[in-house]
Amino acid sequence: MNAEPLLYELHDRARDAGLEGYRRMSKTALLKALDGVEPGPTVVESSGRGGLGLVTFRGGRENALALETLEGLADAAEALAADPEVRVVGIVGGGSRIFSAGADLKALQGLPGAEVGGRGAAALERIEALAVPTVALLNGHVVGGGIDLCLACDWRVAVEGAKLRFIHNELGYTPPWGAALRLGALIGRGAALRLFATCELVSSQEARSIGIVDEVVAPHKLLSRAESLAVRVGRSDREALAGTKRLLRPDVTMDEHTAAFAALWDARPATLPA
Q: Which end of the chain has fewer surrounding CB within 10 Å, N or C?
């Protein structure tokens, strides 16, 4: 997890720090120049790739998650989901070694726990509630609060070699933003408790075998896999898919299922096959 950064990652840090002439510097010189330089905040960017709306967060301390970052992710994801051309929203970390190192503990220091937990959970609930499917594109390691983030998405696709570290209890905290609830629903309470209790480090392949990750792909195929998924999702009627996603929530009653179907059935009789 603490491997020496790659050259292009040092270039990104130097650019963000405003270090002049960094591209002409050796790796050793860059490491020395950046020693002690405080990284800036994690920034959120969005872009469109056909039916895939992509939200990228990068920078800071290995894509660490401050409350403002989580809220920025929710804002960007909601804006993309409102575009009728977007069929899937993907969330990916910048760089190639890490999806997220988890909560930005330095940025959160001094804030009351109710604010840290409440604001973060609210942001992830906004992502979870999007009308279009969401996919966490795990381009590298996922630690602590990064697991909370990826579990708020409907699907997870990880690259080969990525690892998920359930470090929450080792740090002395419970999962802050809903990971315990979501993971228990996904793989069962006992299996989820074991991962948190043992502070497990799980490979992407093992995460696939126990049902946390849906697919494992080569790093160079991550974005193309998400684009292909968006194309396939495009076969679904947008309104029907949004309704189906709502119906998959565990608290929905059978009356709500019936009403959702009836609304679409009665509105579209002319579209039904003879």
A: C
Q: Tokens in use for 31?
A: 């490491």
pLDDT of residue 239: 94
Q: Is 166 helix (H, G, I), strand (E, B) or coil?
A: coil
Q: Among residues 172, 103, 189, 127, which one has the least CA distance to residue 180?
A: 189
b/e per residue 149-177 (b: at least 16 CB within 10 A): bbbbbbbbbbbeebbbbbbbeeeebebbb
For residue 6, the SS3 value is coil
223-256 pLDDT, tens per residue?
A: 999 999 999 999 999 999 999 999 999 899 999 9
The full set of domain ranges for the chain reads 1-37, 41-233, 238-271
Pair 183, 150: CB distance under 8 Å: no
Measured between alpha carbons, how far apart are the two ends of the chain, in Å?
59
Q: Is the pLDDT of residue 1 over 50?
A: no
The CA distance from 52 to 85, in Å, is: 8
> What is the C-alpha separation between 17 and 178, in angstroms, rounded?
33
Q: In angstroms, what CA-CA distances link 97 with 185, 196, 266?
A: 28, 23, 50
Distance CA 74, CA 94 (A): 17
pLDDT at 37: 66
Written as six digits, the tokens of 55 are: 């939200």
CATH architecture for residues 41-233: Alpha-Beta Complex (3.90)
CA distances to 57, 79, 83 from 129, in Å = 20, 13, 16
